[in-house]
Amino acid sequence: MALVPYDSIALWGMQKLHKSSSAYTFANRTIQIKQNWNQLGVAAVVWDAAVVLCTFLEMRGIDLQGSLVIELGAGTGLLGIVATLLGAHVTITDRKAALPLLEANVQANLPAELQPRAVVKELTWGQDLANFSPGGYDFILGADIIYLEETFMDLLQTLDHLCSDQTVILLSCRLRYERDQNFLEMLRGRFSVREVFYDASNDVHIFKAQQKVQYGDL
Ligand SMILES: C[S@@+](CC[C@H](N)C(=O)[O-])C[C@H]1O[C@@H](n2cnc3c(N)ncnc32)[C@H](O)[C@@H]1O
């Protein structure tokens, strides 16, 4: 009888998370991301959802040139770095504890002339939102940020605050639990939501959300 004591894909995933750095190629550059799972946990490793959304932005030719982008729950910063390399002005945010590693990765991977286009800033969902321009962004990006039920209302409030009727929200995620689906239902209550991509090999979905058209405004 064949014994399969572990799921080899899951094990490979865990090994990736425990590496002290990982390398990617986007926008014709090698990006070297420092990781620190042991000290900082989920915020300090690159999740597949981030890599899939970076690939989507680049391969689909999403036009970020000169656009104002904010990334929520940026973790190590890969997605924000790639958005900057693709031409955007990016506010790259996460909770306070994640910021030193995030800042180090952004500095190490952006050439000096692009550094002014990437600003790392604390944003804990639902808190101090007045520090961020209401409706002031063309794109809101988030990779693997749908996973903590207790943050769902705060995350929605944050999206509401940052979004105008022109803003495009792109969220990439693996839907691991029923609660993740529940968040999508909550999102659908406020925004028009459409799945725009599914990467079967990584089991990562990308959803696009925009403010619902208010028929009274037409
Ligand atoms: C699974 S990690 C994803 C990190 C990164 N986006 C990626 O895909 O590699 C989730 C991220 O959400 C952040 N996060 C969790 N709760 C948060 C909150 N209440 N406010 C802001 N960020 C939060 C974590 O610090 C972490 O960086």
TrEMBL record:
Q: Which reaction does it catalyse?
A: L-lysyl-[protein] + 3 S-adenosyl-L-methionine = N(6),N(6),N(6)-trimethyl-L-lysyl-[protein] + 3 S-adenosyl-L-homocysteine + 3 H(+)
Transmembrane intervals: 37-57, 69-92
Q: Provide a Gene Ontology MF annotation, just one.
A: methyltransferase activity
- State if Membrane is listed as a keyword: yes
- Subcellular location(s) of the protein: Cytoplasm
Keywords, alphabetical:
Cytoplasm, Membrane, Methyltransferase, S-adenosyl-L-methionine, Transferase, Transmembrane, Transmembrane helix
Listed under GO cellular component are: cytosol; protein-containing complex
Q: Does the keyword Electron transport apply?
A: no
In terms of InterPro entries, this protein maps to: Methyltransf_16, SAM-dependent_MTases_sf
Q: Which domain of life is it from?
A: Eukaryota
Under Gene3D superfamilies, the record lists: Vaccinia Virus protein VP39 (3.40.50.150)
Task: Tell me, in one coarse class, where this protein mainly resides.
Answer: cytoplasm
GO biological process terms, alphabetically, are:
methylation
Its family remark reads: Belongs to the methyltransferase superfamily. METTL21 family.
Q: What is this protein called?
A: Protein N-lysine methyltransferase METTL21A
Organism name: Varanus komodoensis
Gene encoding it?
Answer: METTL21A
